[in-house]
User: What shape does this take?
Amino acid sequence: MLQDHITVQNRHKEFIKKITETEIVYALQDDKGYATSYSSEAEYEDGEPVQIICFWSDPARAKSCIENEWNHYDPSPVSLTEFVENWCLGMNSDGLLVGTNFDSHMFGYEAEPLELILDIIEELRNSGKSLELRKFESLDDMEKQIREVLED
Assistant: This one.
């Protein structure tokens, strides 16, 4: 189990590194929406598992999960800016988690959306990159606002 946890952690770190390099995230989409799963760790107050929307760092990883109930989905690219400003912030508001680089056994990292944004910002800074944001003045502004929300 420890090895599985380390593998999932490493895939999550790879996810952050790759999406900050390419500035593209991949989701699985069909005509009704996006591929979702349920948390194996977190649950709502009523005891139901928290819903997860899954994202991958490259289309090949996403395609490897197109089977069983996801056999009618296709990889769909999402810009990193749209991912952090729309997806992650919206998922946080909706009480959802982000699944990163899940494998074909539906095993992957479950991230709090705002914490994931902070990790992405840190990686962008470490690599000397930035993002052209539409809803925030800068990465610093976005980080400041997210930290304020997390402190409340």
